[in-house]
Amino acid sequence: MDYDSCLDTALAALHNEGRYRVFLNIVRKNGSFPRAKWNRPDGSVQDITVWCGNDYLGMGQNPEVLSAMHNALDKAGAGSGGTRNISGTTAYHSALEAEIADLHQKESALVFTSAYIANEATLSVLPKLFPGMIIFSDQLNHASMIEGIKNGPCVKKIWRHNDLAHLRELLEAADPDAPKLIAFESVYSMDGDFGPLQQVCDLADEFDALTYLDEVHAVGMYGPRGGGVSEQDRLTDRIDIINGTLGKAYGVMGGYIAASAKMVDAVRSYAPGFIFTTSLPPTVLAGAAASIRYLKTHQELRDQQQSAAKILKMRLKALGLPVMDSPSHIVPVHVGNPVKCKMLSDALLDDFSIYVQPINFPTVPRGTERLRFTPSPVHDFEMIDALVKALDSLWQKCELSRNAVAS
């Protein structure tokens, strides 16, 4: 067997389709982000502006967050020392989980090493806790949700994205006595649209189903304290399990679920993805707790971010660029061709020092390739102006049409 030849074939296929992904070696500079340094392959260094990060509110450089992390490092050292079951549960874990439970007005919370692991571990274990469970999953749910559902011993039903009539149809056809769970998201990050939270909760009540809401692109960003779209829509009490991340708006690392005390206790006791993973270090936990506390009382950052997103959308639309309709803070610009999407990304970086990664299959369906911009409070008007002018000049160069309507 020629293993190298198989690897060459697999990698060549990505290159030929124009969707081979290149990792940029960058260094974020504290105090000046989204400015960063790009360590180029030739050994030179270039100043760039990052436009595709998930540190939506710039909390990765917030002084209170950094101070909390420094203090934790000085007091507790580097690592946690083990899994949560074996010496790896610390006062920092308990404090963060209490902060998260308060954020979502739930009895309890459970911290994981990432929101991906939180989704996969929780959704795969729920059918073991509720034998015979049927999980109804939105078509555009995160890969982590899909993997978790696949790995659980359950019947899986996929409902068309945000199609409530289809969801009702599937619920009506299901065994009325079977335990059910509806899994969906509040903000779908590739298109930037919202899930229909209230209507899903109504259907869950009607058909006696649990609700599982992924809020990773919404926590910190929406609601009067940053509790997500469920808090903004006053629906927190109707969501049984909320999944969130500490690595996007909160600017640190990790993921979690928030739910009833019994639900959290059962997940932590049965989910292998939680039981057998070394827990997060005190520095990360302390920083995340400080970030959550800070954003509970700093609505101005959310307002500034929403304002930056609206300005960017308005200016791009004024130039006839195909900004995909997005009521959220996400600004996706449709390209529709993987080669040209990468061409745009490369030209923005090389010619304008603007870093935005192309979004290609399998993250989005073929033919819907796009650039996904994430404005933040630390993207000033000068940066927005530079981005708009760069895209305007490159659109014609790449032979892309304007005024295209992207769905």
| Number of E-state strands | 16
Main pleated sheet: 7 strands, mixed
Oligomer: single chain
| Principal-axis shape | globular
Estimated helix fraction: 40-55%
Structure report:
The strands form four sheets. A seven-stranded mixed β-sheet has the order 4-12-11-10-7-5-6, with helices on both faces. Helix 13 (338-352) packs across helix 14. The chain is built from 14 helices and 16 strands. The model has no long low-confidence stretch (mean pLDDT 94). Strand 10 (209-214), helix 8 and strand 11 form a beta-alpha-beta unit. It is globular and about 60 Å long. It is of the alpha/beta class and 407 residues long.
What's the quick description here?
With 407 residues, the chain is α/β, with parallel strands linked by helices.
